[in-house]
Amino acid sequence: MAVAVKTQDLPRIKGVRYIPKENYYVPGHRTCAGCGPALQYKLVAKAAGPNTIFVGPTGCMYVANSSYLCTPYAVPWIHAQITNGGAVASGIEAAYQVLIRKGKWEGELPNVIVMGGDGGSVDIGLQAMSGLMYRGHDALFICYDNESYANTGIQTSPTTPYGGNTTFTPPGPAIPEGKKLFPKDPPQLVIGGHPAVKYVATASIAYPADLINKVRKGLNLKGPAFLHIHAPCPKGWTFDESKTVDIARMAIQTGMWVLYEWDNGEIKYQHRPRQYKPVREYLTLQGRFAHLTEAHIEKIQAFVDAKLKAPGIPVAIPLPPPRAVA
Ligand SMILES: Cc1ncc(C[n+]2csc(CCOP(=O)(O)OP(=O)(O)O)c2C)c(N)n1
Ligand code: SF4
């Protein structure tokens, strides 16, 4: 006889006043002051609660967070390789399903959450993330997006915006804009290619209650879910560490980041401003864009304008010209 899998039902919260007081990502870690990914970790851990297992593909949230015998996670966690967060989570979830089927685990199925950087989610870790989504494991995959391979010295990643100055895309006479490519679209990548996935959403540290509700929705749902969370990085983006939340909010006010959820084929938007501010107001707050010319800023504005005509729908991305043959 099939054994019923007991699952959790995490309640929706009405606003910031109702954010749980309990912390499962506690002080004592070694991330930079004002680290956006650390703040989102804290919020996700509050949302998920004690019956949670975090899976961490290598990145700032593991290397900067944990040193020998000292970590900030107050729930079980495992450090995966940057390539295989999705595979490790798949194995954990599948093992629990077997234990439940054999009557060796009588509790609720834990929340299995992969917390990967953009590199560990949609670049080096893409195949394992996609495998988890494709096979339909009951797990939540979170891509915390600091728009670079931060832990190895702020190298460019596929989600680094056009024009971003990183250690691999320094602006100079040959390439004045720095990064030449426009970013990948992680939510659309997951939605478009994975029939088992029914819930995909974007979130931001600037809207913590919305973030918590999306985490809980993804966890309550049976099957795989994907969240793309905007998490500014003061070190890599070059801004004052007291401004992390302001920068995250400005991204939404200028349309550089759009908050939405894709729920079984239906798109719903959250916190859409009546009037978007020019992208310049976001770009000028960050040293990584300090070298951009008017023409570069116009190119970014045109990209955002096209995206905002149908937010959540991929836009045609301008490609760089083919490389000149030496
Ligand atoms: C296969 C492999 N390639 C490269 C590395 C080196 N490496 C460690 S952390 C890291 C950056 C991770 O970037 P991301 O996943 O975006 O997370 P972040 O550091 O930005 O939080 C890299 C490239 C590695 N550990 N394994
Ligand atoms: S480099 Fe960025 S992501 Fe990494 S710990 Fe510092 S602020 Fe956080």
TrEMBL record:
What is an example of a Pfam family matching this protein? TPP_enzyme_C
The reply on keyword Oxidoreductase is yes
Any one Gene Ontology molecular-function term assigned to this protein's record: thiamine pyrophosphate binding
Which stretches are annotated as coiled coil? Answer: none
Mention one GO biological process in which this protein takes part, according to its record.
small molecule metabolic process
What are the UniProt keywords, alphabetically? Oxidoreductase, Pyruvate
Indicate the segments forming the Thiamine pyrophosphate enzyme TPP-binding domain, all copies.
73-229
Please verify whether the record's keywords include Oxidoreductase: yes
PANTHER family to which the protein is assigned, alphabetical: PYRUVATE SYNTHASE SUBUNIT PORB
What is the recorded name of this protein? Pyruvate ferredoxin oxidoreductase
- Organism (species): Tectimicrobiota bacterium
Tell me the classification of the organism that encodes this protein: Bacteria, Pseudomonadati, Nitrospinota/Tectimicrobiota group, Candidatus Tectimicrobiota
